[in-house]
Design brief:
Layout (H helix, E strand, L loop, with lengths): L2 E7 L6 H14 L4 E5 L7 H4 L10 H6 L9 E2 L6 E4 L10 H8 L6 E6 L3 H6 L4 E6 L3 H16 L5 E8 L1 H7 L5 H8 L2 E7 L2 H9 L8 H13 L8
Parallel strand pairs: 1-5, 1-6, 2-4, 2-5, 6-7, 7-8
Antiparallel strand pairs: 3-4
Helix pairs in contact: 1-10
Length: 237
């Protein structure tokens, strides 16, 4: 049974799908088999980011409705050997957390990353699986991150971590929204899993659905987070 992590965005634009795509790629490059399940129903993104959108025939909606077996809706990505995508349906369908849990637990991968948005399904999934909440180091995103954290706790989630995304040290201290990163962590309420710096090069590659061969600062940070998830004792900073 794969190790499932739910990646939750604090708000639109906080980069949850960016983190999911990058983290999945980093885990696959560590020699792991990784499935990214795009659970953003009606807001399909991961297929374009990982370069498989031109090949899609079936998606997660077809699996849940019984139109196809799950293997027919899983596509390999050229970004890394062992990286696969189960794309979301473009329609906003209704599905229970129990149904999605039952499906994800049958899939045979080393790691499964479920890319979700902040809604009742995502909160409910947190009671079954470890959860990472992504925030930008800005007041609105941090406040939403705390709300996501509390909602997950209300639904029974108890293994919740924080990923600070799109971090620019210069902007962070110039804007003075917070005194330091400890204040961001305290305001969200979740333990820190890692920090991903602002990286236009990687963001541009995902927008175009093209693999990035060079090592950028965000890829380096995501590699470190992947190693920590994979059980390697690596310091946060």
């Amino acid at each position: 049974m794969g190790k499932v992590t739910v990646i939750l965005s604090s708000k639109g634009g906080s980069g949850g799908s960016f983190v999911t795509a990058g983290l999945g790629t980093a885990l696959a490059k560590r020699g792991k088999s990784v499935l990214i399940a795009d659970c953003g129903f009606g807001m399909r993104e991961i297929d374009m980011m990982l370069g498989i959108s031109d090949r899609l025939v079936f998606d997660l909606g077809d699996v849940l409705s019984g139109n196809c077996k799950v293997g027919s809706a899983v596509y390999p990505s050229d970004f890394a050997d062992g990286l696969y995508v189960l794309p979301a349906p473009q329609e906003n369908i209704s599905v229970s957390a129990d149904t999605l849990k039952s499906l994800l637990e049958t899939l045979d991968y080393d790691y499964i990353l479920a890319d979700c948005h902040s809604d009742s399904l995502a909160y409910s999934l947190s009671r079954y699986f470890q959860t990472a909440v992504t925030v930008q180091p800005e007041p609105l995103s941090v406040r939403c991150g705390n709300r996501v954290f509390l909602k997950c706790r209300e639904c029974g989630g108890n293994n919740i971590r924080l990923i600070i995304n799109r971090f620019s040290e210069k902007d962070f201290f110039d804007k003075k929204y917070f005194s330091d990163l400890d204040e961001v962590i305290d305001k969200v309420g979740a333990r820190l899993l890692g920090i991903v710096p602002e990286d236009d090069t990687l963001s541009s590659a995902f927008q175009r659905g093209l693999p990035l061969r060079e090592k950028t600062k965000a890829l380096y940070a995501l590699d470190r987070i992947a190693a920590r998830i994979d059980g390697v004792d690596i310091p946060l900073f």
